[in-house]
Amino acid sequence: MATASTTLLLSLAFLAFAWAASPSPSPDAEAISRFQEYLRIDTAQPAPDYAAAVAFLRKQAADAGLEARTLELVAGKPLLLLRWPGRRPSLPSILLNSHTDVVPSEPNKWDHPPFSAALDEPSGRIYARGSQDMKCVGMQYLEAIRRLRSAGFVPDRNIYITFVPDEEIGGHGGVEPFVSSKEFKDMNVALVLDEGLASPGEEYRVFYAERSPWWLTIKATGAPGHGAKLYDGSAMENLMKSVEAIRRFRTSQFDLVKSGEKAEGDVVSVNFAYLKAGTPTPTGFVMNLQPSEAEVGLDIRIPPSAHVEALERRLVEEWAPPSRNLTFEFKQKMSVLDNFGKPAMTAADSTNPWWTLLEEAVKSADGKLGKAEIFPASTDARYFRKIGLPAFGFSPMANTPILLHDHNEFLSKDEYLKGIGIYESIIRALATHEDGGKDDESRAEL
Ligand SMILES: [Zn+2]
């Protein structure tokens, strides 16, 4: 009895000691746990829990001292609009955009459940769907603002932060209607930051344009015939000639990437999405019959620098000529031009003062920007560029494999924390408006 009570007393004393000695969590540890909390909200398409994400983010915004409004431009698709008021609100504003939805995952192929936000202590990796694409960026904006506010910084211009729905399914319920809304016009946005990609090397990647998707189907018709007969002009023969020509073109583009002559975003990519032909039976296909129809589906991505007319001519003359009984149809054909007829790209050189500010801000936070690139796929940034706004795609993740949409998507906590510092520097630079002075002529235009 006596022994048991002594043990109990000792245990209690130890617990009290341990409790008193445990330090309160560091600001970094708190930032990490807020990131994990956001990652744990299941916002995977096709049924994202937007209500939970918006409730969490509104709480974060309140803690960071930001004004918040929830817009619902499409029913059931909340878009959270936050504002950090500048002391000179008539200046053009900055918009920091991120999307709240994520792509689905196959949990059984992950080492940690995709919405556990498990922190692997030895490696410092946080595993979660959205850890790279792009809940990291949204939270880094907010963390950077918290730090700037507690350092007493006040922006000159208004800083807006948007958390938008549906990027992963095309942005039709999010940024697409947003850019034509009255709310957006009233914001007087001058520059948008949106998502980029992780970089396995030391340099951060930054994107100034995107390739435009062309989704194309080519259909062939031809005389049907016995499977034993050799004759010209069958649908399959007509289509396969096109497939061969398309493959040659694909190889020529891919070779430019393989040789290092061009970056992935600078070439026209062509990939076969499906092939459809044959006469089905309950167990397979009729084997002794040449079908009268055959079809191929292509996913083509065009950089804004591409010669579009030449490509269209190639399509009509070589890939789908009527002389071979071929027809084509675009399921999607996005223009490479903005609404003013110019290639939809943002200048990433000294002609654009925003670029200079961005580059210097990253540098002064001990980061390095790689050469600006064309994003190989599509993001919401295209809607901003379409209406003529400059937009850069940037997600500060160096030394990180590209795992967006992949199994075991992760971001290390050190890279995440470093990214907060990068945004602190960027937001400070972009928010500051310098009047007068000798070399401020270009800045005065901002
Ligand atoms: Zn994304």
What report would you give on this structure?
This is N-acyl-aliphatic-L-amino acid amidohydrolase. There is one protein chain. Residues 437-442 have low confidence and may be disordered. The chain folds into two domains: 27-209 and 343-445, Aminopeptidase (3-Layer(aba) Sandwich), CATH 3.40.630; 212-302 and 306-333, Alpha-Beta Plaits, CATH 3.30.70. It has helices at residues 2-21, 27-39, 50-63, 135-150, 175-179, 182-187, 235-258, 308-319, 353-364, 381-386, 413-431, 441-445, and strands spanning 67-71, 79-84, 93-99, 118-120, 125-127, 159-164, 189-194, 206-210, 212-221, 225-226, 269-277, 280-281, 284-285, 289-290, 293-302, 326-333, 373-375, 391-394, 410-412. The strands form five sheets. The chain has an eight-stranded mixed beta sheet. It has a four-stranded antiparallel beta sheet with strand order 11-15-9-16, with helices on one face. A three-stranded antiparallel beta sheet has the order 4-5-19. The termini are far apart. The chain contains twelve helices and 19 strands. It has 446 residues and is an alpha+beta fold. The structure holds zinc ion (ZN).
